[in-house]
Amino acid sequence: MDIQENIINKVAQSGLVSIDLADLYPAGERVLYDIKDNLFHGLILREKDFREFVKEHDWTQYQDKHVAVICSADAIVPTWAFMLLATKLSPFAASVVFGNLDTLETILFQRQLSNIDAELYRDQRVVIKGCGEIAVPISAYLEITSRLTGIAKSIMYGEPCSTVPIYKRKD
Fold first, then answer.
1. pLDDT tier, 7 (very low <50, low <70, confident <90, very high otherwise)
2. Is the pLDDT of residue 13 over 70?
3. What's the CA gap between 81 and 87, in Å, rounded?
């Protein structure tokens, strides 16, 4: 007896729109530049020495990389020093931010999310995917949720087959 069953994909028929924030992950190596390595005795930044370093350093090594600039030492570093680094990094780096690598990821995702047209999700039932292979900062989940609240009909977190309700608009 040959029994043929029709398999129905209820997820595909549900009308859910899925957003995978990992798709927004900008390509490129992440690098931390710690200005502490330029401090005299780990305490102070000498302008003459620093300017000489900046002039002689090979900035091409940062080509197409995302660079986070920070000073991890307990030292007072003048603002102009960070600005000077930015002038040398910017022609080569894909992006330059002040902060650690976590801050860098947050800013990279914020930039990507700012390009999303929230109107595309008007009156949609949206699932924001989670738990992927790429680490997405929590700030990105907050940002997309904030942008879609009031626009989307509903927002859920997880996978289309297993979601956690986050928001439902009152019509």
1. very low
2. no
3. 10
pTM of the model: 0.83
pLDDT of residue 8: 40
4 falls in which pLDDT band (50, 70, 90)?
low
* Mean pLDDT, residues 125-144: 92
**Domains of the chain, residue spans:** 10-26+107-168, 30-93
Buried/exposed code over 36-73 (b: 16+ C-beta within 10 A; e: otherwise): eebbeeeeebeeeebeeeeeeeeeeebeebbbbbbbeb
> CB–CB of 110/142 below 8 Å?
no
The whole-angstrom separation of Cα 52 and Cα 100 is: 25
CB of 145 closer than 8 Å to CB of 155:
yes
DSSP for 96-134, written as a single string:
EEES-HHHHHHHHHHHHHTT--GGGGTT-EEEE--S-SS
Confidence of residue 12 (pLDDT cuts 50, 70, 90): very low
Dump the DSSP string for 28-87: S-EEEEEGGGGSBTTTB--HHHHHHHHHHS-GGGGTT-EEEEE--SS----HHHHHHHHH
DSSP 8-state secondary structure symbol assigned to residue 23: G
**What is the Cα–Cα distance from 151 to 135, expressed in whole angstroms?**
26
